[in-house]
Structure formats: structure tokens, C-alpha cells
Amino acid sequence: MKHLLLTLSVLILIGCSPEKKQPQLLLISFDGFRADYLSKTETPNFDRLIKNGATAEGLIPIFPTKTFPNHYAIATGLYPENNGLIGNNMYDPEMDARYSMGNRDAVENPDWYSGEPIWNTVEKAGKKAGTMFWIGSEAPIQNMRPSHWKSYDGSIPNEARIDTVLKWMTREKNPVDFGTLYFSFVDSQGHRYGPDSEEVIEAIQQADELVGYLMKEMESNESINLMIVSDHGMIEVSPSRKVTLDDYIDVNKIEIISYSPALMFNVEGEGEKEFFESLKKKEGNFKVYLKENIPDRYHLKNNSRVPEVLMVAEEGYTINTKQFFESRGGDYPTGGAHGFDNANPKMDAIFVAYGPAFKKGVKLSRFENIHLYEVMAKILNIEPAPNDGDIDAVIEILQ
Fold this sequence. Notes:
- The chain is of the alpha/beta class.
- Helix content is 29%, strand content 19%.
């Protein structure tokens, strides 16, 4: 009888014990936040996360080091040739259609996006996702949408974005398991003034203040894990470093599809080899490739959207036509740009992770951003879709 009572007591206690909270993950992007920006000024809130979490020397972006391809690579764990987003600007010969960042019809058309973004993986697992701006989340990919999503609206104050997502994640009924946040101001200042400017330092400080605001607002929610990333770094450009296409080829016979520093174009008729050879002879401040000879490490060429010729500018150089440069004035270009070779550490993005899923005080060497999809799936205890990432490449950051 005593043994029976003891067993019943244990069962009652187990039944009454508080249910362990399911892990949650908040993915945050500060567009254009270069890996070394944290060394440019005091960042006490970032420092706190790094001390009590995980970081890396740099997050290697996929090539081209542009905003749309990299955000979608992070979301899917797929290289551009496999996820469809081979640039901020694209032409699809099978669809006979064009894609650009400002074309809302294209941005919201799921036909442009291959692979499975993390928010779909979350929803398929019976959990809930909420995206406050992320490339691809505005389109019904696989005929699905996150439980909560917002069309991009740059006028929404940054603190309000945080408030909205935290409200989704902390509500009593049906809280969101996975959320995203996106901020563009660091990238904007980098483009306008250059990566070494006072304006960029002020933007870094503003980002740190937002991290502090976020941490204060989520103090009582210890189940939320944070992953703070960027899509790419930034490099200074100048009017003295220009590659004028007219000096090498007949620009009237080419159609530029994607722009410098990773400039891609098609040639009228079948003249791409002739144009390639003309450019190849003058290589110096750029590299040039026919589509079939694009380096394998770019993971780019095996997609029908990739044009016939790729030119990659050397660090700090800008490639375009004489007419384009003249239309912008003699002081063009100034400030900063991205899109350069992803082997250049100045293209590296930031990576900071904090929360119960992450080890404390861990710093990894540089790693590719495609591995993050696997990390997110593991934290949320969901089965990842097929992807190009490898959890073993970053397993050291996880508990």
C-alpha cells in the first residue's frame, strides 16, 4: 500500500510540474553589417551577447555578395544555382520575365524561388513562423505562407518592428516559434558614405542600441534564442577606380542583366566568345568568365538564369558603360559597394548567437552562411529540407 501511494504521489507531481517551454528562435539581419564593424566603436550590447553566446570571425556570404541572394541562401541553406536567386536583378529565359528588387510583382511571385525556406519547414512541422521582412517571405512559396508575415515597409520604426515580432513570440495562445527581423540602415549609410565613415560608426552604434532595446524587452523570455547576422560586408569605391566597358567591347551589342561589381551580360547573337576574348586580353582590374567557366566555388553557373558572361571587379572597382558613368557625373562612384568576390574578408558579414541553445564564449573561424539553415532546424527540433549546408561545420556553437 505504501509503495502504491508513493507511486501515485510521484505521478501527480510529474503531472503538475510546469511544462518545459519549446525552443524559439529569432533571426535578425542588419543589412551590410561587415564582420569587423564591431571593432570600430563601443558596442556594449553586442559585447554582452558575444560574452554569453557564440560568434565567428566572419560569416562568408554566397556569391554574388548581394542582398537578395544572401538572405534567401540563409533562409534555404542553398547556393544560388539551387535556390534560383542568382542576383538582385535577373532574367529568366524560360519564363521570359525579369526580376528586380523594386518589382513588386516579381518579388511576390513564387516562381522565382526554389528550395524550401525555413519558415515553410517550421510550418510543415506543425509550428508557427512570423516574418517581419525577409527576402522570399512575401511570396507564397510552395503555396504556403508563414502564420504571420509583413510586406516590406521601410517606414515602420525599428523599435516597432521588434515590438511586433516579440508580441508574436510571447503571446499566451499560439506563440510563434520562429521569427525574423530586418534592418537596412547600416547598409544604407555604408553605400552613401563608405565603410570607414563617421556615419557608418553612428549606424553601428544605432544597431547596438536596438540590440539593447531587444534584450530589455525579452528579459523574461529565456526560451528565445537569437541569431544576429548580416548578408554581406562593404568596400569603399571611388571615381579613380572605374572599368569602362566601351574601352574593350561594343556596348551596343550587350544587355546587362546584373550590375557591378559582379556584372553579368548577354551578347546579341552568338558573339559571347568574341566579347569574352576581348575582355580576357585586358584583364587587370577585373576577372571575366564565360558562363560554363565560372569558378565552381561560386556555385552559380548551373542555373538557366545566369547570363553568358560574368565580370567580377577587383576590390574597390566599378564596372559600367561610358554613358552610365557620364550620366552620374565626374564624382561617381563614391561611398561603398558590395557584390565583390566572397573570398575577400571585407565581404564577410556578422554572426552573433545567444540563448539556451548556444554555448557561451565560443568563437568559430569564418564559415559559409548556407550552414545556418541546418542550425535553425536543429534548434527548433524540426526535420530540415534538402540543402547544401552541413551542421558539422558549425556544431561547436550548439549546446
